[in-house]
Design brief:
The complex is a heterodimer of chains A (105) and B (486). In chain A, 43% of the residues lie in helices and 25% in strands. Chain A has 105 residues and is α+β, with helices and mostly antiparallel strands. Chain A is elongated and about 55 Å long. Chain A starts with a strand and ends in an 8-residue tail after the last helix. In chain B, helix 5 links the parallel strand 6 and strand 7. In chain B, helix 13 crosses helix 19 and helix 18 crosses helix 19. Chain B is globular. Classes of the chains: A alpha+beta (105), B alpha/beta (486).
Chain lengths: 105, 486
């Protein structure tokens, strides 16, 4: 997967190119896996580094979970793109929805 | 000269579309489900999603018109999509504007049953100390009619409310007197096992159009095992009571609920068959909740969400097959979710609301005058946790109760649109915040969603519904009927 590099096996380290995956996307992906993976995110030499460990009891699914985490990174980056692009429309819809509520400031 | 333009005049300009707000989740087989601002949904292949976001979708592609019709994309000059989404958003949240509809009166904590999984921590001794008084009921009625909601439902809960039927009678008559001036759409429900129902009580129910909500856990052996009482005759009393109540009040005036005990897990078909045997037109396949005796007796720990989902899926699939054979029968939890998936209406089910329905949609007046944000909140109180006590009828005003920090903090802190993971979750428009459950399990109203059994349960059921709709067009038709009941 472009932008991701393995550097270790035990506590797995993933180096992530921040130009491809932003910090927010990485944090959100890590949160979604909080029940399966413990992920510590640091920034080293301009790159995001994820130290990935299995949550106790999930060790035998570690590889599968890491693979899914990588897929989730893609999803989160795409979600961010959609969210940013649709922000004006989202605000307009809410403004219209509450236009008769008397709650506008 | 033709009076009509040729078809190509109506075809959109290639690539001239904009994205509208939507979220997505991966499903099986490289499918993704997209949900828009109000919970309308579309299922696409992952490649197609990328095509959509990169604006490579051709106007001649059938997905184009599908996404446009459901407000996932709009053409540059198109302003109607935004207005329609705004209107639908307003409709979807109109319940919030009406404020509290459901008012629960816990008229007694006493009960003639001693169910292992009881979420209310009943008091079985004959103590008047656990009955609501007329003075407390008067105070509660003052609060009830301060609600701006044009529809008011008063539900009598217990313990077993029929053990304090004099107070039920008092509240009904008093509420109707007040309503002669208020002119609300006033409805009464008694939640009862039917074990103590009498002709006198039924006459009163008939006179005042009171509905009965009862409990049936399955076939006789299972029901009696789940619901012990002196004489071990809970089932036969339910059956007799159901017959009497239907004869007196009509078929539609009595409904039943079940709870999934550990002993129920292998018997979902038997349970559904039992409901059919009594001509009940649907079932709510309910999981256990982490409150009251369900915790004390460790019933709650007896099965996890994965096991419950297995039970649920087997039950739902069986119900769908029954419908295909011409038997009209609904699974009510699916029906609630499907209503949110297929319509702009919100069914107002407290567990599936955001902001939470606690306090806003429903409020509980406990026998002792304490006010709780939901039924689950007062169940926690019986376990010694008063986090969601929002006031007391004897010492607090309406304003103090509904602006209490206990209520506002719970609503604010659990709001799904600002909750980690929920904010990006495609299932969020169909889900709810459930602050009381998360507080009970995690000690905070938000909890960690990836570890939350509530989250796993909703996701599990939704994924199963979507999968069935994808693979079985007849099931989809059945689901659409459940969502669009007259």
């Amino acid at each position: 997967m472009s932008g991701l590099f393995f550097t270790q096996i035990q506590t797995m380290k993933l180096e992530i190119d921040e130009q491809i995956y932003c910090l927010e996307a990485v944090q959100k992906a890590a949160y979604r896996f909080i029940d399966r993976l413990t992920i510590l995110i640091t920034k080293v030499d301009g790159k995001l580094v994820c130290e990935v460990d299995a949550v106790a009891g999930t060790e035998k699914h570690f590889d599968e979970n890491v693979a899914n985490f990588k897929r989730e990174l893609l999803d989160q980056q795409l979600r961010k793109k959609i969210k940013e692009e649709t922000e004006p429309a989202r605000n307009l819809i809410l403004a219209y929805a509450f236009s008769r509520s008397g709650l506008q400031g | 000269m033709s009076k009509f333009s040729t078809l190509d005049k109506y075809v959109s300009q290639q690539g001239k579309y904009e994205l509208l707000p939507f979220r997505f989740e991966s499903l099986e087989d490289n499918d993704v489900v997209l949900t828009n601002f109000v919970g309308e949904f579309v299922i696409l292949k992952r490649d197609k999603l990328d095509e959509v976001v990169q604006k490579r979708l051709s106007p001649t592609d059938e997905t184009y018109s599908l996404l446009r019709s459901r407000h996932f994309i709009k053409e540059v000059s198109d302003t109607a999509s935004i207005e329609l989404l705004g209107l639908k958003t307003r409709t979807k949240h109109s319940n919030i504007r009406n404020f509290t509809n459901l008012h629960l009166f816990v008229v007694s904590l006493r009960c003639d049953h001693s169910c292992q999984y009881c979420q209310v921590s009943r008091q079985s001794e004959n103590k008047a100390a656990f009955d609501m008084t007329e003075e407390t009921a008067d105070k509660a009625l003052q609060i009830v009619f301060r609600s701006p909601n044009p529809a008011i439902k008063i539900e009598f809960q217990g313990g077993e409310p029929l053990l304090n039927f004099d107070l039920v009678r008092y509240v009904v008559i008093k509420a109707k007197q007040i309503n002669e001036v208020e002119k609300r759409d006033l409805q009464f429900v008694i939640t009862t096992t039917l074990s103590l129902i009498t002709d006198e009580i039924l006459d009163f129910c008939k006179e005042h159009k009171i509905f009965l909500s009862s409990s049936l856990d399955g076939p006789e052996d299972l029901h009696n095992r789940n619901r012990p009482r002196p004489g071990k005759d809970s089932y036969s009393r339910f059956v007799d009571g159901l017959q009497k109540a239907r004869d007196k009040l009509g078929y539609d005036s009595v409904s039943a609920l079940m709870t999934t005990s550990p002993a129920s897990l292998t018997r979902v078909r038997d349970i559904i068959d039992e409901y059919l045997k009594h001509d009940l037109d649907g079932i709510f396949l309910r999981h256990l909740s982490p409150y009251g005796f369900a915790i004390k007796t460790k019933s709650y720990e007896a099965y996890n969400v994965d096991r419950w989902l297995e039970f649920y899926r087997e039950g739902l699939d069986y119900i769908v097959e029954l419908n295909k054979q011409g038997v009209r029968f609904t699974e009510h939890f699916a029906s609630l979710l499907l209503t949110k998936m297929f319509t702009s209406s919100d069914p107002g089910f407290v567990d599936l609301m955001n902001p939470s329905g606690a306090g806003i949609s429903a409020v509980v007046f406990n026998y002792d005058g304490d006010v709780y944000a939901s039924d689950e909140s007062r169940m926690l109180r019986e376990m010694g946790d008063t986090t969601f006590k929002i006031g007391n009828l004897h010492t607090n005003s309406y304003e103090e109760i509904f602006t209490s920090e206990a209520l506002l903090n719970a609503l604010d802190d659990s709001f799904t649109l600002s909750a980690p993971m929920c904010t990006d979750c495609a299932f969020e428009p169909w889900c709810g915040s459930e602050p009381v459950f998360h507080h009970a399990i995690f000690g905070d109203v938000l909890g960690r969603k990836p570890e939350s059994e509530f989250c796993k349960r909703i996701m599990g059921v939704v994924r199963h519904l979507l999968n069935k709709m994808q693979t079985d067009p007849e099931a989809k038709e059945i689901f659409m009927r459940w969502a669009n009941k007259c």
